[in-house]
Amino acid sequence: MPQEASKPRVASVRPDSDLPQLDRDFDYSVPEQFQEQIGVGSEVSIRLGKGASPIRGFVRALKSESEFSGKLSPLETCSPLPVVTEPLMQLCELLAQRHACNLAEFLTLAVPVPAVRLSAQILDGIRSGSVTTAQTESERSSQGAEQVGQRTFAAVECSQLGFNRYFTELAKRAGQYASTSRSTLILAADERTQNRIVALLEAQGVKAALYSSTLTRSQRYKIFTDALAGRAQVVVGGRSASLLPLQNLSQVVVWDEGDPNFADRSAPYVTVREICALRQQIEQFDWQLAGFVPSVSAARWLDTKFIRLLGDFTTSTKISFHEAATKFGRQSISAIREALASGTNALVIASTPGFTDAFYCASCNERAACRFCGSSIKASENGNLTCRTCNAPETSLRCRSCGSAEFDSGSGGAARSVQELGKLFPGVGIRESTGASPLSQAPQAAAIVVSTVGVTPEDSKGYGAIVILEAHRFLRREGLYAREEALRQWAQVLGYASPGAKVVFEGVSQVLGQDLALWNQLKLANEQLVERAELLFPPVHRLASVTGSRDNIQNLENSLAGIADVRLLGVTATKENRSQIEDEAKLVISYPHKATVTLAQRLREEQLKLTGAISKNKRTGRAVRPLRINMDDMKVI
Q: Greater confidence, 596 or 576?
């Protein structure tokens, strides 16, 4: 990157735009009042043409004069300190190359929208000397121990005690690093886990900043600038925190890296796994994945020696199972009674909320489907029918095949389980925790908690018994990752168990039940890895999807033919045509990891050819890209 001049007159700026034709640097003149504070990585406001509204931009270079012979437009505003460090710029450039998108899309993910009042306070602090700017590369290398850049997977005992023990040890290590001006970043996908981690860190006297989506814009920008200036040395956060420019970063820990919430559901569809892997190569920090079970991607890395396993996957719980899908079998009832008798809570996990997970036509047995997205219909406690996915109300349910209005209900959800438990355990307190009405803490007195996955209330003593109802339904969900996600969710639930707690799986096969009882999690992950390798499915290969009009997709298919190692799996109609473009289609592409940049460049070239043919969303009227590219589509299969 070009060196800064002492009195820069021209700034090369990358505008914050997702239009492919604007993915380049534009020269602007630097007004005199900004010449002292501007630097490479500063955030500025610019106008792209006369009469245009100001937009964000990021300074990529400073120079004394421009190659453009005309009159340059001036910068409108300039941040009081550079907000994009050199390592962060390198990381965003690599990610943009691999995802066939604009550099500004990743810079926008990394840099939160500034708070004007806070920016003024930071500028006053710089002038008074109370706020320091980001360290240079030489300053970072002269502080603390030399970075060794180890990549490991810490296998944590699957219990509440195992979780607490791991993060207590991590807190001690983070405190030692902080004492030598080295920083630690801890990533967890959901806010509940983030709060648990922060509490365990603070119990060891380690002050941690929580960088979560619930913060206000000022709070997020404050933590961002604290990280940039070296004042935040331990940060806990989710997906967005993976790009925080922490100074002298020594270790990054990703808890439960297989959680789908670590994957961005909107463009540019990047995953925390990929961000950390690339960032670790640039900054050479110690990178540790940690969890109760390995994802299939982690199993691949372990198999190829890219990461090293620390410890063994174990659990202190006593796991039993039975193949019958009948709810509340003898083992389940016995486990719940023993837990209640010992004064501990019992946890029951239902596969779905509400009274039923689906409805089926009484005449032809066709599943009732949402008229908008095609997902199944659920019934709430008050009898209202809504879509399980998009929550659209269903007032007049009719079979799409035969037109019948008579339907039979499917398996029961959490609300029905509460009723059934009330009959089995009269006089015992029963609490329900679902996404619509989550509980944060389990009852103090011994009770039964019925919960869906992801909203299990924390119990300070740990649950004495855990029953997972209709486990086969977790395994039968759609998608390539259904089995992997089921194992991860079950381990997440077992992470709330007390030592020696009894766990019962209802409705699993003999083979899977034995592996669960022995906690052969690495074996289960490796089995899935072998199956996917035979089919060239992720994570052995990657799957990309490109969505657009059928004509554009047909032209793209012809253009991509013949690229080495790239397989075109075919064109399908889109399941959810949210853009409401006529005759929209999706091209699915399989390719090896080594071909990522080559394929992304070719897709980018094809996208640029269509910049003058922007399509429009019929519902909103807004322009959409003629080709929408997802280089790592986790839902295409």
A: 596
Q: HSE-up of 48 (CA within 13 Å, CB side)?
A: 15
Q: At what angle do helices 296-303 and 521-535 cross, to 10 degrees?
A: 90
Tell me how crowded residue 180 is: count the other CB atoms within 10 A of its CB: 12
Verify cis geometry, omega within 30 degrees of 0, for the bond prior to 268.
yes
**For 107-129, what is each residue's pLDDT tens digit?**
999 999 886 666 556 655 544 44
Q: What residues have CB less than 8 Å from 518, skipping those under 6 apart?
A: none
Residue 622 pLDDT level (bands cut at 50, 70, 90): low
- Distance in angstroms (rounded) separating the CA atoms of residues 54 and 80: 18
pLDDT of the residue at 75: 96
Q: Is the pLDDT of residue 620 over 50?
A: yes
8 A C-beta contact, residue 326 and residue 506: yes
Q: Which letter, b or e, does each residue of 243-262 get, where b requires 16 or more Cβ atoms within 10 Å of its Cβ?
A: bbbbbbbbbbbbbbbbbeeb
Percent of the chain with pLDDT over 90: 69
Whole-angstrom distance, CA of residue 424 vs CA of residue 234: 48
H helix count then E strand count, the chain: 17, 28
* pTM recorded for the entire structure: 0.89
Which helix (H) or strand (E) segment holds residue 291: the answer is strand 286-291
Measured distance CA(124)–CA(546) in Å, rounded: 48
- From the list 346, 354, 352, the residue with the least C-alpha distance to 443 is 346
Q: What does DSSP assign to residue 72?
A: P
Average pLDDT over residues 207-215: 93
**Residue 236 backbone phi and psi in degrees, to 5:** -115, 130
Q: Which helix (H) or strand (E) holds 89?
A: helix 86-99
DSSP H or E segment with residue 125: helix 116-128
Is 70 exposed, middle or buried, given 0-12, 13-18 or 19+ CB atoms closer than 10 A? exposed
- Which residues are paired to 442 by β-bridges? none
- Residue 571 forms beta bridges with which residues? 587
Euclidean distance between CA atoms 623 and 635, whole angstroms: 24
Q: What is the largest CA-CA distance in the chain?
A: 85
Q: How far is CA 506 from the centre of its chain?
A: 30
Place of tokens 């699915």: 588
